[in-house]
C-alpha cells in the first residue's frame, strides 16, 4: 500500500486504517483498550509506518528490547506489527515491536488509573509538556492543557526522543520538508516544545525530529478547529 502525507486528510485516512487494524487485534485477542488509548497507539503506528517505509528506525538498547519482550503485551505487539507489515510491505525490527509493546503497556495502565497522564511519564517529560502547553496558550491563544490525548501521545513519543537527543542519535525524517510546508502552524507549536527542551538540556531537536512531533499536533488542531467551526 502506498503511503504519503499531502494533507491532514491523508494522515487521518492512514490513521483510520491503522485504527481498524488495532481494533481487529483487540477483538481477536479479547483485549481492552479505551478509545483514547487506541488513538494514542494509532498515531504512533502511523508515524512508525512512515518512518520504516523510508528506512528510519528508532534505536533501543538491548536491555530495553529485552524488558518489553518479556512483557505480556509483546505478543500482541507482534500480531499488530505483522498485520501492518503485510499491508504496507515493510518489516518491523524487534526494537520497533518493543516500542509498540511499550505503548500497549502504558496505555493499558492509562485505562485503569484514575489520574495517569502525568503518572505514566517521567517527571522531566511531564515538566516539559506542562511548560510547553502553557507557552502555547500564552503565545498562540490555544489551550491544550486539558487535552489528555495530546499530552499522553506526545509524552510517550518524547520519552525515547529525549534519550536519542542526549545520546546524539536523532533520527532522520524523509517527510520533514513536506510536513513543514503542509503543517507550518503545527510545526511552530512543536518548535515551542523544542525551545523548552533546549532550556533544560542545552540541546535542540533537529527539524526531522520536530516534524514527527508536529504530526501529534496535527490531530489535535484538526479537532480543535472542527470544534470551533
The figure for the number of domains is 2
| CATH-derived topology of the largest domain | PTS-regulatory domain, PRD
CATH class (first level) name of the largest domain:
Mainly Alpha
Largest sheet: none
Number of strands: 0
**CA-CA gap between termini:** 33 Å
Uncertain ranges: 2-7, 112-116
Report the total helices. Answer: 11
Shape: globular
CATH superfamily grouping of the largest domain: PRD domain
Content of β-strand: under 5%
Quickly give the CATH architecture of the largest domain: Orthogonal Bundle
- Quickly give the structural class: mainly alpha
Radius of gyration: 17 Å
Present the secondary structure layout:
Blueprint: H1 8-29, H2 35-53, H3 62-69, H4 74-88, H5 94-112, H6 116-119, H7 123-140, H8 148-166, H9 176-182, H10 184-201, H11 207-228
Descriptive overview:
The protein contains 11 helices and no strands. It is mostly helical and 229 residues long. The chain folds into 2 domains: 1-112, PTS-regulatory domain, PRD (Orthogonal Bundle), CATH 1.10.1790; 114-229, PTS-regulatory domain, PRD (Orthogonal Bundle), CATH 1.10.1790. It is globular and about 45 Å long. The N and C termini lie far apart (33 Å). Mean pLDDT is 84; it is low at 2-7 and 112-116.
Amino acid at each position: 500500500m502506498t503511503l504519503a502525507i499531502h494533507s491532514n486528510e491523508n494522515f487521518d485516512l492512514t490513521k483510520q486504517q491503522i485504527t481498524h487494524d488495532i481494533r481487529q487485534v483487540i477483538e481477536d485477542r479479547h483485549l481492552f483498550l479505551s478509545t483514547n488509548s487506541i488513538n494514542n497507539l494509532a498515531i504512533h503506528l502511523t508515524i512508525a509506518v512512515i518512518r520504516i517505509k523510508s528506512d528510519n528506525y528508532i534505536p533501543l538498547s538491548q536491555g530495553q528490547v529485552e524488558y518489553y519482550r518479556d512483557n505480556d503485551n509483546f505478543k500482541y505487539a507482534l500480531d499488530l506489527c505483522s498485520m501492518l507489515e503485510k499491508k504496507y510491505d515493510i518489516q518491523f525490527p524487534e526494537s520497533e515491536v518493543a516500542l509498540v509493546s511499550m505503548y500497549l503497556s502504558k496505555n493499558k495502565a492509562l485505562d485503569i488509573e484514575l489520574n495517569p497522564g502525568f503518572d505514566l511519564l517521567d517527571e522531566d517529560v511531564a515538566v516539559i509538556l506542562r511548560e510547553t502547553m502553557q507557552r502555547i496558550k500564552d503565545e498562540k491563544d490555544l489551550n491544550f492543557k486539558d487535552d489528555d490525548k495530546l499530552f499522553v501521545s506526545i509524552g510517550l513519543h518524547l520519552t525515547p526522543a529525549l534519550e536519542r537527543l542526549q545520546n546524539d542519535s536523532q533520527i532522520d525524517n524523509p517527510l520533514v520538508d513536506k510536513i513543514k510546508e503542509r503543517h507550518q502552524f503545527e510545526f511552530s507549536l512543536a518548535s515551542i516544545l523544542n525551545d523548552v527542551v533546549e532550556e533544560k538540556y542545552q540541546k535542540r531537536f533537529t527539524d526531522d525530529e520536530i516534524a514527527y512531533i508536529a504530526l501529534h499536533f496535527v490531530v489535535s488542531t484538526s479537532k480543535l478547529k472542527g470544534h470551533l467551526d
